[in-house]
Design brief:
Two copies of one chain form a homodimer.
Chain A (H helix, E strand, L loop, with lengths): L7 H31 L4 H21 L7 H11 L12 H11 L2
Helix pairs in contact in A: 3-4
Chain lengths: ~110, ~110
């Protein structure tokens, strides 16, 4: 799958969708961290927030990797997790969309 | 210095002072984290908060070690950093207080 070509139009669609998903996930995460932080009552809660941030940072750093060779998998994951709607990938060729849709259901 | 004995009275004074300093530092830190979290505007700010928490956790875990053999140094540090007033260690013998006072000035 790593040898699939991406046209310029597809590249634009992909970059825009990628950025949109990233902004959505980050915005949601920032809000979540604010809520968790405002609810800290004792030291234990603060270390729970720290562990949460460690895990999310690792997760996000690994997930948002813009490389053509893995983009199909990245988009499938983003659709599956709800950060992206499959409609927002319109403009990609049918084959890619079919793969993303199938992988997102797995 | 590790062979200094601690009477029961001194133990009580030490434990109370230790707990007091810990609560003060933690309370201040929780407030600080709340303020920082509420000011998060972008992802970079969130990772700065994460780094801050990593450093503070490491620092606090190392600092609040209740062992008689290191207590003089722990108290000296807490006094130096302002988490404890030397008066709150009244009840310890003169020699210990003199050592703590001297170390806190270093």
């Amino acid at each position: 799958m790593s040898e699939i070509g991406w046209s310029n139009i597809e590249e634009n669609v992909a970059k825009e969708a990628f950025e949109k998903a990233y902004q959505r996930e980050i915005t949601t995460l920032i809000e979540e961290v604010r809520v968790k932080a405002s609810a800290i009552a004792e030291i234990k809660d603060m270390w729970i927030l720290h562990d949460f941030l460690s895990a999310r940072r690792h997760d996000i750093d690994g997930k948002y990797e813009y490389r053509n060779s893995v983009l199909i998998f990245v988009f499938a994951r983003l659709v599956k997790e709800g950060w992206l709607n499959i409609n927002e990938l319109e403009g990609l060729d049918r084959d890619k969309l079919a793969k993303i849709t199938a992988l997102a259901r797995m």
